[in-house]
Amino acid sequence: MSKVTGDNEKHPLDAYLRTERLPHIWCPGCGCGLVLSCFIRSLLKSGLNLDKVAVVSGIGCTGRVAGYIRLDSFHTTHGRAIPFATGLKLANPELKVVVFSGDGDLVAIGGNHFIHAARRNIDITVLCVNNFIYGMTGGQLGPTTPLTARSTTTRMGSIEEPFNIPYLAAASGATYVARWTTAQVRRLEKAITEALLKKGFSLVEVISPCPTYYGRMNKQASGLDTMKYYRSNSVIKPDIDLKYADIKLNGQIVVGKFVDIERPSIPNL
Amino acid sequence: MPEGKYLAGEFFMSGDEACAEGAISAGCRFFAGYPITPATEIAERMSQRLPEVGGIHIQMEDELASLAAVLGASWGGVKAMTATSGPGFSLMMENIGLGLMTETPCVVVNMQRGDPSTGLPTLTGQGDMMQARWGSHGSYRIIALAPNSPQELYDLTIRAFNLSEKYRLPVLIMSESATAHMYEKVVIPPVSEIEITPRRKPTASPEEYLPYKPDSDLVPPMANAGDGYRFHTTGLTHDERGYPAMSAEAQDKLIRRLVEKIEKNRDKIIELDEDGIDDAEVVVCAYGIPSRVSFRAIERAREEGIKVGMLRLITVWPFPEDRIRQIAGQVKAFVMPEINYGQVVLEVERCTGGMAKTIPVPHMGGGVHTPELILDAIRQAVR
Question: How many domains does chain A have?
């Protein structure tokens, strides 16, 4: 970890960021920046050759990660990061290809690609930042919005059951599945490192605050409130039947490494 | 290419097979697709042939994913293609836009069938020509080639790859069911005789490389992922660094360049096949399979003493505006058979500027025109 030096102009990870693009677009209290720092530290720990790492994002708040990280990076169309990454990986198997995107991008508009990439066991790592809402467009219902949670398109509360992403990924064939929140930075970092080094389709879901929309509409007024909620409601249960890892409004968040298996992957048959 | 895996000589093959072989000859080593009549045989042949030459075929979950994977593969440094028909082509519109905006070389083949919607899966059509031109949202220019035989499917697939690398964009092959499933002689030249346009690689160091700074022909050199340049690319409006730039100025600069890199190279891109135009009263303008029916209609019209010329569009987009204007000044009329209600004929009409009549010969699809239909239009033109 960095020491406080009093120099506010520099960050220990600046070398890996496109600092000329800062300040970033994320709101105060948003978890995207935190997940990005975790990801960079995990990359450094993994020992991967950074010239051979490519980051692919879709559209949305998390989708902007590709534009801030100083690696080969692709900001693609909404939902299509995974198939783009699939082509990139198959064309050059030397690359470590990481998809870094949000829950709406990955499991709503990109849901079909998500399950098929897991089924094929394409050798890519997917980081899914799940903030339960569409942030970029101003707080609409997402595929992960908990039942009865409010959004700008569910003013009286959602009547839809959300996706339980680890359950979906595991059922679809992912070889590595973990979920952590932004309140468990060290565990998150470890999970991302493991996912990066895993052969096959690896997924890390990160439960992450959106104080501006999700929080404001669901009684977590600040990012800090949300972090406190994560701390007091996260339960580590790696052996849980994933069916029961669903997230209810302001309810318990089951976290842990749920899946770590071996299975032939593409293109490493 | 591995010894003995490259075909050369004379073959009896379908348009779909010839298209796949053209891709192999052009250096295509990645194919992602989704089964669809009448383009499926391209995927089938690629799935067999690509592993033989060290390439990769993958069947994706839909056409959205197919073109996304093709774009990804192209950035991985491999020439890549997909093939589809109308319904899949509609799904690909999204990533054709991404390919244009990020300037990603690749080839998209559309074996058109009866339309719209599911239409006539097994029967021919040409209803996607304006979709090819305008289907993805936004202002852009595209390149679309229209072969009229299995031989041309072979030849033009190679040309499509070369154009896509030279001008950095998705290039479309707009063929149709009739040609896809037509069996004819196809001559494949020895590999040494095939002209291949290589990717234009950056000469600047990674520190100095600006991924969207164009050369004098308005096309920027392209680094591949993993080359050490650590570049960024986005479908957002961007500056020369490839970084998002949300302003009217950045939009003006980028979109003008994307259009002008095609506009200013029209003469190099447009390929036409002309016959008997110099002293013609009437010119039949056609592309794809109706051009072959037109040959018989023209023959019969000439037997009747009518002076008929033929203008075959091998490149449909960009449209040969200048040549149409020139011809319009010297003929009475254009006759244009298309297997749609009338699409490219609107471009002909626009370019004639009223100097010559435009007579569409529409066919709604499911078959080709009879020569008589076109002959009647020729007779009407000189009446």
Answer: 1
